[in-house]
Amino acid sequence: MKKVYTTSAITMTVGAMLLGGAVSASALEVKSGNDKVGLKLYGHVNRAVMAVDDGNDSKIFHVDNSHSESRVGLKGKVKASETLTIGGNVEVQWQSNPSHKVSMDEESISAELKERKMEVYFDCDKLGKLSIGKGDMASDDTSEVDLSGTALAGNSGVADAGEGFNFYNNNAVADAESMAVGDIFNQMDGLSRKSRVRYDTPSLGGFSLGVSSGEKERADAALFYAGELAGGTKLEAAVAYSDPGEGKDYTQINGSASVLFGFGLNFTLAAGSRDLDDMPAGGDDPMFTYGKIGYKTKIFSIGSTACSFDYGMFENIGHQNTEEEGTAYGVQLVQKLSDYNTQLFAAYRNFELEDNTGADYEPISLTMAGARIKF
Question: Is the dihedral of CA 25, 28, 29, 32 positive or negative?
């Protein structure tokens, strides 16, 4: 017999799931207190074991994979008319030992309940969608368009696993400060999630435009494309311009594109650049380029298998008056277990840093394996 939860019991249900209470996704039906409103409970848990070697020390960490943070949310919507849908979304994440925060000095980080989305929207078939509240700015995720099937294990956000680790400098007398992975490897992925007003046009020939204006004078615009070509080939792309507003001295342009051929071969590209208001003498604009080649097929009856290799170059992200280049390469593998709504993943990542200060930085290598289950 199915369990039916009304809105009066949702808080208890979500709390139980976050605290480890077992709730069967197949047996859970969420019912709104208003018969006109459709309500959906969703989320996933994404855990991994990660081994890191910085050239001076090595450790094993038990992490939440920040390529797709563990989260839980509620979506509600009502059909106001034949052409208008009104809805809302509340979503939170709870990460214990985030893979982008652990370091050689900090192996254990307590879980922090963090809001991701709290918004309402009005979606009209012919006029577009208006969103109000905390949610994705128009430019969010525009550097991470990826059809490879391996984004869970690694994508252009290379520092999502390993951001907190410092590069070990063999030349201690060099005039070089301590540099972390997160100081160098930034995929300039738009303005993230903020409290804002956002408008998205209807899709026309696969193209759509999004614009948003948020707190602290943030503003951005993004152009999207999603379509299917001959032979079952899929193509998706995005490009964005953003102004991060108060306290920031730059504007930014970034984008990405991914193509998946019908036989499984796929290619992904991403790039971005920042235009600084106050460029130091002899400095260069921060920029990055990233590429991935992958193959997706069904080797086993349990679900699709995807593998990939990627490479990225990140220049002058940390300092503009120092010639600084970080390179990252890696391999990724994701196996779907379709009947169980679960994915198994494994990844290897190598980070290298060079600059003109005379420092001799050791590379950082990272291996991660784990599983994500969706509900």
Answer: negative
Burial of 242 (0-12, 13-18, 19+ CB in 10 A): buried
CA distance 97 to 63: 5
Contact 371, 188 (CB under 8 A): no
How many angstroms separate the CA atoms of 113 and 82, rounded?
A: 38
How far the first Cα of the chain sits from its last, in Å, is 19
Burial class (CB in 10 A: 0-12, 13-18, 19+), 312: buried
Calpha distance 134→114 (Å, rounded): 12
CA-based nearest residue to 372, from 345, 338, 333, 332: 345
> Residue written as tokens 């078939």?
125
* C-alpha angle 331-98-195 in degrees, rounded to nearest 5: 105
Domains of the chain, CATH where assigned? 32-374 (2.40.160.10)
347, two tokens: 């990844």
- Per-residue pLDDT, averaged over 278-294, amounts to 86
Which range (35-39, 90-94, 191-195, 258-262) has the least confidence?
35-39
Instruction: Return the pLDDT at 33.
Output: 66
Mean pLDDT of 154-158: 98
Q: Are 61 and 50 in contact (CB under 8 A)?
A: yes
Q: 285 with 320: CB under 8 angstroms?
A: yes
Q: How would you write 115-183 as a 3-class SS string?
A: EEEEEEEEEECCCEEEEEEEEECCCCCCCCCCCCCCCCCCCCCHHHCCCCCECCECCCCCCCCCCEHHH
Which amino acid is present at 73?
A: G
Task: Determine how many CB atoms are found less than 10 A away from the CB of residue 56.
Answer: 12
| Phi, psi of 16, rounded to the nearest 5 degrees | -65, -40
CB-facing half-sphere around the CA of 229: CA atoms within 13 A: 10
Answer yes or no: are the C-beta atoms of 286 and 203 closer than 8 Å. Answer: no
38 forms beta bridges with 77
Tell me which H or E stretch contains 15.
Answer: helix 7-18
The token pair at 343 is 């994915």
State the pLDDT at residue 34. 73
Residue 241, φ and ψ in degrees, nearest 5 = -120, 135
